[in-house]
Amino acid sequence: MKIYAYKTLQLVLTLSIIFSTAVSASSINPLPDNIERPNHELALYSQEISGGAWDYANEFFDFFLYSAVLVGSITVGNETSLGTPFTIQNSEISVYYFPIVSDGIIVGTFRIFVDEIRTNENNQTTYSGILSPYLAEELNTLIGVHSVGVLLYYDNGNLMVQVEDEIELLAPCPGGELPELNEYEIPVDEFYLIIPLETSISIESLELTIITL
Length: 213
Fold this sequence. Notes:
Blueprint lengths: L4 E7 L32 E3 L4 H21 L8 E4 L11 E8 L2 E10 L1 H7 L4 E6 L3 H7 L8 E5 L2 E6 L2 E6 L20 E3 L4 E3 L4 E7 L1
Antiparallel strand pairs: 1-12, 2-10, 3-4, 3-11, 4-5, 5-6, 7-8, 8-9
């Protein structure tokens, strides 16, 4: 005889503007108590985020988060929101990284980019997105560490962090290539500082019923 257990996931999220107060979202699996929740912010240098990426995040964040929590690819706590997006320099394609902030820590990123195939098919710029734990651990190691702006960039496939005149490896290249350790010059007129932990987008109320056999 099959026994069905039902759990209701209430995601309470509302669209808000940058630097607004975070909106609560309850989830299936609360974050472990032993995770240290940083109290300080992180400021990243970023290029401008396209309006199309903002629109895509606004429209699809709820669906992607809903799906990721359902299949267990990401775990969120009691208060979850989408942080302020940023860019990583020297990337092969333009990707806009929206951090997913839950109970004060980053648990994943919502990466949004132009889908070249669908853009050609639709004859207009079309975006796609990936929501996963990608970069969460690396970003959390930077929170509260630096009192000045931090620049993230790729060097020969390696993710580097530059703070003033200091360069460190944040994540190695999957293919094993070594970085050249060249300092990246920040064009001041093209970059601005953002705080990724600040809420930019949250989701409106949904109910999800999970059926387990």
